[in-house]
Predict the 3D structure of the following.
Amino acid sequence: MDPKKNKNNLIGKSIPRIDAPAKVTGKALYTGDIVLPGMLHGKILRSTVAHAKILNIDISAALALPGVKDVITAKDTPCVKFGNWRLFPQTQDELPLALDKVRFIGDEIAAVAAISAEIAEEALTLIKVDYEIIPAVFNVDDSLASSAPMIHDGNPDNTSNISLDRKIDVGDIEAAFKDAYYVREDSFTVHSHSHAYMEPCASLAEVDSEGRVTLYTSTQTPYIVQCLLASTMEIPENYVRVIKPSVGGGFGGKMELRAWDFCSAFMAKRTGRPVRIVLTREDELAVGRRRHGMKIKSKVAFNKDGTIIAKDFEAYLDGGAYNSMGPTATFLCGNFGAMIYRYPVYRYRGYHVYTNLPPSGAMRGFGAPQALYVSETQMNMAAVDLNIDPIELRLKNAMVTGDKIEGVTTISSAGLVESITKVAEMTNFLEKKKNLPKNKGIGIGCYSFISGGVFNWFNTQYNFSSCEVRVYDDGTAHLLTMSADIGQGSDTVLRQILAADLGLPVEKIRLTAGDTAMTPKCDLGTWGSRVTLMNGNAILDASKKIKEQLSKMASLKFDLNVIHEVSFSDERVYAKANPKRGITFGEAVKMWVKANRGEELTARGYYTPRDKGLTTPAYSFGAQVAEVDVDPETGVITVERITTAHDCGTVINPLGVEGQLEGAIQMGIGYTLCEQFAMRDGKTLNTTFLDYKIPAAEDMPEIVSAAIDTYEPEGPFGAKEAGEGLVIPTAPAISDAVFQATGYRCKELPITPEKILRATGKI
Amino acid sequence: MSIRNFTYLEPKTLKEALSMHAEHGTKSNILAGGTDLLIKLRHHSIQPDFIIGLNSIPKIDYIKLQDGELAIGTMAKLSAIVENTEIINHFPALAHAASVTATVQIRNMGTLIGNICNASPSADNATPLLVYDAKVVILNNVENREINLDKFFTGPGKTVLEQGEIVKEFLIPIPSKLTGSSYQKVSTRSKVDIAGVCVSALISLDKDGKITKARIALGAVAPTPIRVYKAEEILIGKIPGIEIFSEAAKIAKEESSPISDMRSSADYRKAMVEVLTLRALNESLESAKKK
Amino acid sequence: MISVSEKFYFYYFYHVFKHYFSIQQIGIMSKVKVTLKVNGDLYEAAVNQSKTLVEVLREDLQLVGTKIGCQTGDCGACTILLNGKSVCSCLTLAIEAQNKEITTIEGIAKSGEELHIIQEAFVNEGAIQCGYCTPGMVMSAKHLLDKNTTPTELEIRQALSGNLCRCTGYARIVKAVQVASEKINQSVTEK
């Protein structure tokens, strides 16, 4: 083990999250819990039709209702289009409120602020919208038909409902397939899926007399919300302060500016009173962002010995009515189509297609779960056809440290081989698979994921992660960062990283996070598993600067030879070779302050991945085995055990990593077996947790896991991604296990009892 | 959405509740456990001006044996059904169904009678009550009436209850000695799920081992929970066994008329009727033999 | 309290004259005083009769530890104890909860500095991530352990199945309840 890993016994230590006591006593405040004096309640009117021109909106009756303080439609606003992909202005296709057209059932049309939520709701019923209905399309095929209506027709560059595409070409694809011994060619449909975070979105805005906005919002990206709120309100970024209170989960669903953020701020400005908007679960399930459903065609060529020689991968993403984070999903689907095994020749065609459905957005693993469901299922199918066991077939092709992904990057650490070997060993995979009892199955799926993105789609001018560290003569430190803990535990892990590096106990690090006015610019927020690696590196950068300063104090005090290394641990600063020659951390700070005539000792730290290609600075890997039992008469699937071996580099907080893993399995099982949207003519029918079923405690299997020991040179203390990618392998693993149990190979997720009975001829 | 405001009325006796219900007619709704009613109120699928809460009426949550019958009062909670030893001993299928109805919290709030009066085609507890020949005692301002549960449901969400009527209690006869019963449910998405299909069965044997009484009831496969009389009839007088059970299960399947909806397809539901009926009959037989 | 006939009068008045009065005024008129005993303290609030207990706890009593996740009784975030039994406060009218003992997440720790055994276990076992389900989850755990101090793993899972969590996969929550159960039994034996 690298000695750096165990720094000050804090790296690799399970520490309960720092906000746990507040959360367990009900004291932690979420946006919907906050009340400001004079606060108004906002509600949003949504389109009831899937595709229509807005002919007229009559708000007079709503405005006349006593208690109503404001009603806004797009015409009252600056009508600035926005979107997360600022690097490509043509992708910015959304307005805070629809102006001339609605594009899905749920598109926001108007907003009301009133003295009570009841009055605001009443006012919504008094707004009359005249529509001219346009034909609507609810799937990719219909949307690409020549007769299809144009969903975004204002832009002359748009010639179809494909909002963007991505092409990757590595090597000569035609030649590679000509020489293949075996070609595996399949079409798959992977479905949409809800984040189903427990806290429905909420925003609360107040605007001061100078027009400066303070927005409390349930977000995972305070910086993105700050920038986009400023641009849509046409005010300087500096006039917008975004505060992220406790956030009840995000999983990618809270990383954009949303209509309620804009409307609460805009109405707060107009009324001079704070405005709060809280969504309902029905809102969330009916019109909230969701995972991209995709249609994927994949063709893989193998040699006789099972070596992959080429892959031809084509994906159509159902984007819904707006781009949202669809461009990223389109890119990552292509990247992950070529991941985890060596594909010397690769072609990808990805198309992001508009439909009149609620927009798909970022969701845990965006693009990768779909791509890897297909890839991993095909690997399992190829293993059968080539008569090679699925472990051997994977090991033969698995990426290893130093492998180059053509046109992308070189992998700086990869524990895939070790993960596959380990998980096979832990489950006695091959032996079990040979001797499966009736109706039982065992299957495997593997994954990789990014540790934050490199491609600067948000087009920020600032470093991707920044922080400030202040140290005090009482022996404590204050860490200020814009990063957003939405439940994943970054507030704890970031404190842990700083504490380990400065040699202080975690309790002595005070943290200010997720407040754009109080923390350095910027941190891009919580998405793409970026926080530990990127913010961790920024913290180490700042910490290094602090330590340089304090080392000088120890050096002076003890007249240290210039070759002496100064160490920081146990709240002391001392000569490594002679620990007795040292002072306390607080004394060192005091000396520095005196020496600098009363200045405060602070340092800024920054990190932006450079020379790391355009995808990510580091990849995580892992392998998972699912064991299932299928009732042959009812088709009901019981997942009995999930075993995972995963490579997330150095584990900083095992308690946090394991929690992420177990949570990912819940989401993965839901995705595979029981969660899907029931849609009819663009309308989401299952808008309660009674009908949008996420797994409950009773539905969860036994969970076994092992972390593979690797060291990522680019990560803080060797750490990289953990938790997001773990949502990927569950679907292919369960799917393979169901195949072993029943003979049904699922190419159309989710796997339902009914599909099993149809496939086995029972119905 | 917010619940539209109403006036909450708090009768102290069932009689008072009846007269309030009669006075306000269709503008009023009865609130027992509230687990279904509050959802309807929130979704504005009903918008009453008056809610008549039975919460403050004393001693109507009884579960007691009287004259060879079990009487279950209108406010008896599902959690009480699950834990009641008389029910566990004499009506195990009902105890089982109640134990898998919704969640702990809902069972602590919801009443058995409310679950039945809500008349959902998939109500977990309707099929066991049907196989146990439960009678519904209905109060009104004119003359109380008693009706067998198999005549109680008239459609999805609809019952024979007329305006101003309240269900006082269920009366369930204690089954004869050599009787076994079973509740079977298939939840396709989660263990904590409303029934995709549910089936209850009951079999009584004579001392020669012949079937003297048979009941089969299906949930979620017709507009209301139903009994399948034809399937019951062919079992009478027979020595129980896999062949006759399979035949009964096939008839049950034919008698069912499920719809396809977002929870399941009609084909799947029909197939499940056969599977679950057979399982329920087998389990009933096993349990009858043990007695 | 306003008598039934008075309420009826208001109702009648409202329907005859509703076009002349704003909803707001009617809203005030139809409010009633409810007295709630929460965590041992008596609170009074003037509320619409249609208000649910969770709305009154959060909006009128500022006890915002109880969360709203769905309003349909499916997620359990609003779980509280009513006379010791776990219920969804989103499906309970505030007016019905009068004369009953209401216990919320704010009422179970011994002091501001000392957590309840269950809360302590949730913290130490990593049972909390985003924390939004946590108050309801803790109340369900308390309901279970008050009745059954030695639950099996299956009993714990069943008892918590009315509380949805999207972050943890429940594993650590189940572990926390097991640890709390052991601690409760230890403290009983010690006494």
In short: Confidence is low (pLDDT under 50) at residues 1-29 of chain C. Chain C has two domains: 33-107, 117-190. Residues 171-190 of chain C form the longest helix (20 residues). Residues 53 and 94 of chain C are 4 Å apart (CA to CA).
